[in-house]
Design brief:
heterodimer; A: mainly alpha; about 50% helix; about 0% strand; B: alpha/beta; Glutathione S-transferase Yfyf (Class Pi), Chain A, domain 2; Rossmann fold; 2 domains; four-stranded parallel beta sheet; 19 helices; binds iron/sulfur cluster
Amino acid sequence: MEDKAESDEDWNYQFLEELVEDVEENQNIRQCIECGKCIGECPASKISDFNIRRIIRKVLRGDKSVLKDSDIWYCFLCERCKRVCPKKGVNIPLLILNLRNESFKKGYGPRYNDLTKYVEMAEKFLTNGTVLEDPLDGSLSPERIEELNEICNFARIKYVFKASEASKAHKKKNLNKKRVKK
Amino acid sequence: MEINNLAIDLEEIEKRYENPLDFFRGKKLCLFKACLEKYFPGVRFGIQDFLEELGMEVIICQNQSCCSGTFFQRNLITRAQFAAINERNINEINHQADILLVSCNGCYNSLLRGRDFLKDNTVRKKTQDILNDVKEKMGGEKYLGQYDILENPKLRIIHDLDFFYLIRDELVNTLKFGLKGIKIAVHYGCHYLNLDRDKDINTYLKDKTKLEELIRLFGGVPIDYQERESCCGWGASQIVIHPDDALKVTYKKLKSAENVNACFILMPCPTCLYTLSKPEFRERMHKIFNDEVEIPTIHLNELIAILRGCEEERCITLRRKSPRFNQIYATITQE
Ligand code: SF4
Ligand code: SF4
Ligand code: SF4
Ligand code: SF4
């Protein structure tokens, strides 16, 4: 039978601990009873293959392939699951954010092109103090803007930008090599 | 260090004040600048005009920035950076006001969430380190504690919907028009409906009905529909990441309200309003589903402005005017 009884060895909490070690709101993820209540009303499950139970299973088994799954990018962070989950101390959207963080770090996250809108918003945030052009109440004063720039450098955007430049350069080099060969 | 929750205790006010508005009198009220109010100025004016007419002291904190929730939810800033942005805002506002009113579910969530993150020692330390760097960069503070994490600030935060509901008896007295039996569907938005940061567990799990109760009080008929509790489709940027998939959620919601013959959908959040009303989204849905969705959408603050008889341009953006909307406006404001 494929679905053999679970043995203790199936579980490996190290990955989970790395993920939620300092996340108070997710201390009880291990207590997920796989009841599936969260799936019934999950918008992401309705429009994609997203399945929170499957994601939790992978996490609780230390299966890091979950970081490569496109699933994790489908969560709406709507917190519906938190409302229906019978367990306290389980915050799925926050777990998803942590998984996305790890995925980003490993280079499986969005590419620079996927972030164009956010790059624009980040630029506006660091010049106007809001994510929109010409805000209702005018922009923040230069002093306040300086504070925002000190707090957020959007290192991740810069990192993704560099990665994309590097990969472009790499592709160009390969292309040139091919041309030379011809 | 104990980080307290800044959500206002609604039950306490209801218990202690026969007229809950008295709690707010003599206090300085600040309106949080939600970025998307830019597209829907009626969301701001709707509440600002109302409060000023009641003789309340209302301010907008010029030093407040966007809550940065958008960046946090897209994994572009860390919890500590997000908490630092939030704490900077709370600190500036606390310096100038006693109560912060919030018109947007996203901002409301961010304001409470930033504080929640500070409960974790590691995040709090990182946040304070960031704020210390800011202080150094700015050459010190302008007022005492400007860059400190606040242990027990006087500031209390309230969502506009909770505020209007709390003072509903006063509110209804200021209205010039009623809803004349119009059928209205409601959308709370997931970050109001599913948020537990501001509620005890019982209130959290109970059905939310404040919008329906307000509609009844204004003389309208709240009408139930299948997708009442579903997300608008924004889904923390899903509409940007997977637009065609996310619009399925949006379409289903709008269609479901249209199918029960609701005149419009009422909501307490400009971000939901943006998603549910943006002409480009409507056009795209038209293309994908080969079906036109026409149902208008209105923010609670805008509706209150209309019912109070404010000038049309002040309560609703011209961009959103449609024949169906004009009809609603004309029906409501008919003497
Ligand atoms: S937060 Fe994510 S997992 Fe939870 S119900 Fe919403 S979409 Fe589903
Ligand atoms: S509702 Fe809670 S306990 Fe049930 S499967 Fe989902 S996360 Fe696990
Ligand atoms: S909710 Fe969004 S738009 Fe509103 S202030 Fe926060 S980040 Fe800006
Ligand atoms: S319904 Fe949409 S916009 Fe409104 S709170 Fe939820 S995700 Fe945000």
